[in-house]
Amino acid sequence: MKSNGLLAFLTLSEIRRNIVLRLYEKPMTLSGLKEMLSMTSPQIIPYIKELQSKNLIKKEGNEYSLTPIGKVAAKKLKPLLDSFKSLDSNDKFLREHDLKPIPEHLVERIDELGECMVIENSLENITATYREVLAKLSISAWIKGVSSIFEVEYPKFFLALAQHDRPVYIIVTRQIYKKVEKEYAREIGQFLSCKDSHLYVIDDLPIAFAVTDVFFSISLCSTNGHFDALTNLMSFEKPALKWGEELFDYYKENSIEISRL
């Protein structure tokens, strides 16, 4: 069925959509719109007339601006387009990985991750994901991490961060904790003696992620069921950091904190 509504009117034309979104930021002259959209007068004027006929934009003096209806439409349109832009940019990663470890209420808001960068290991750099995450953790003021894998550098790395008075919250599987407790007892004792360091244990973790004041990154199982430690999705946008903190809180609520020694 063909729709003649405002949603179809705006979304089916990138030019109409861009004019409305530009005017949502501020009123503009015809020259300003042409320059912003890289268009000539004959190209842009028909679209302006269409928007005027729909009572979405108006002209006052030399400037075009949104009507009250246009402002409402733009206000609703922008987050919708941002959501689809985020889903589209992250489509390959989301399609190829299992999202079941993410609670439903956060899957429904997964567009909040924004436009992420995908970091993948390669023959030229076989530890790209691991090194990139460690580099970002090193410059973070606080850290909340969930790990289903173990790296020999982790105990000393996170201990060093905690000893520099950075709040560190770590959730690991029971299997990893048993290994660390046996082989790195001294480091665990020192870590737990730091002012704001916390260690939690959980039975199962088909996921690995970190969230800080700087970034959010996540690794998941591929759709074939194997954990994909070679591919990492990373975002630096504030909504993504908030989303990541909520994901951490979900796992923390299902974990047991290790008592300070």
Features:
Arc Repressor Mutant, subunit A, Endonuclease, Chain A, alpha+beta, elongated, eight-stranded mixed beta sheet, three-stranded antiparallel beta sheet, 2 domains, 261 residues
Explain the overall architecture.
The structure is a single chain. This protein is of the alpha+beta class. The protein has two domains: 6-82, Winged helix-like DNA-binding domain superfamily/Winged helix DNA-binding domain (Arc Repressor Mutant, subunit A, Orthogonal Bundle), CATH 1.10.10; 90-257, Endonuclease, Chain A. Helices cover 49% and strands 19% of the residues. The protein has helices at residues 6-11, 14-25, 30-37, 41-53, 68-89, 91-96, 104-107, 128-138, 154-163, 174-183, 185-193, 238-253; strands at 28-29, 57-60, 63-66, 117-120, 143-147, 168-173, 197-202, 207-212, 216-220, 231-235, 256-257. Strands 4-10-9-8-5-6-7-11 form an eight-stranded mixed β-sheet, with helices on both faces. Helix 2 (14-25) packs across helix 4 (41-53) and helix 9 packs parallel to helix 11 (185-193). The longest helix has 22 residues, at 68-89. The chain starts with 5 loop residues before the first helix and ends with a strand. The mean pLDDT is 91.
Topology:
Layout: H1 6-11, H2 14-25, E1 28-29, H3 30-37, H4 41-53, E2 57-60, E3 63-66, H5 68-89, H6 91-96, H7 104-107, E4 117-120, H8 128-138, E5 143-147, H9 154-163, E6 168-173, H10 174-183, H11 185-193, E7 197-202, E8 207-212, E9 216-220, E10 231-235, H12 238-253, E11 256-257
Helix pairs in contact: 2-4, 9-11
